[in-house]
Amino acid sequence: MMRTELTRLLGISRPIIQGGLAYLAYAELAAAVSNAGGLGQITATTLAGPKELEEEIARVRRLTSRPFGVNFALGHHPIDDLLNEALQARVPVISITGGNPAPYADRIIASGARLMVLVAGVRAAKKAEELGASVVIGVGFEGGGHLGRDDVGTMLLTRRLLDAVNVPVVASGGLADGWQLAAALALGAVGIEMGTRFVATQECIAHERYKQALLEGDINETLVIERSIGRPARVLPSAHVRAILNLEQQEAGVEKLLPYIRGELNVQAVLQGHLEDGFVWAGQVIGLIHDIPTVAQLLQRMEAEAEVACKRLTHLFDEGSPGLASE
Ligand SMILES: Cc1cc2nc3c(=O)[nH]c(=O)nc-3n(C[C@H](O)[C@H](O)[C@H](O)COP(=O)(O)O)c2cc1C
Questions:
Q1: Cβ distance 240 to 66 under 8 Å?
Q2: Model-level pTM?
């Protein structure tokens, strides 16, 4: 059990949120994270429709009695029907990313759900606070999937957000272990969100080749596509990704890029393992991923690491202590 403002607000026992994961975050993964003490989430916007969301929510509730969330990415399709479904089902936590949550915030809060908003900068964080969000999640440049446009890393972004807003801040982007969890808490965050690390777990339905590629990759190997059209996103390298980057270098424009960045190429790569012919989201944190544990093993290990990290610092200021050595 770790206690922070986040665990109190959400009714969880470890301050770790599983981020939205397009085509990957269904009931099994969400329930595994919630059962392990974190906050699991279903990703709504890559489901076929409200009926499927209703079924996923019912399945999570069969698999866990703990709190869970539903994640909505804006900017792809209208979310109204899906959101209505989640609110009718009285989902305890809703997270929103990729756009302005203003049209939805009042309804979400009135339903009794906690609203979490993902941001990549101060302006969006202040807006989320104004709208009544319970939590702001700041996603740094290291992260997997879609990023902010400012190229600011997680450590700096977290401190800047804490500077700018009073609402609790969660750190995200480039985080995978308990040492980093302790560091995020030391910065003043109330918890962390992880995306890529949860793809490399037993409960995630990602294709084995995708998981294997996460194990093999290092911190300097991911690439950022879609920057030329104003929506940068971090991916694993592949022949297809290099073709996208070539087109972007030639300033091909959105029309020519669309056939290369369409969702089906992501789904096929993610679920069928056609990595070279498509693209998969992944963060720089792949350099810290060396195994595919169960979610419970991962969260247990992270808590133990965070405890070691915190204890290691206890004697930092003691008179006569030999001083910290590298771990
Ligand atoms: C495979 C994958 C799919 C993602 N899909 C979504 C999504 O549908 N909605 C969302 O809010 N964020 C999405 N993200 C972002 C994550 O929720 C999280 O914010 C990000 O991965 C944090 O950085 P990390 O990968 O370094 O942990 C995705 C990330 C990955 C790696």
A1: no
A2: 0.98
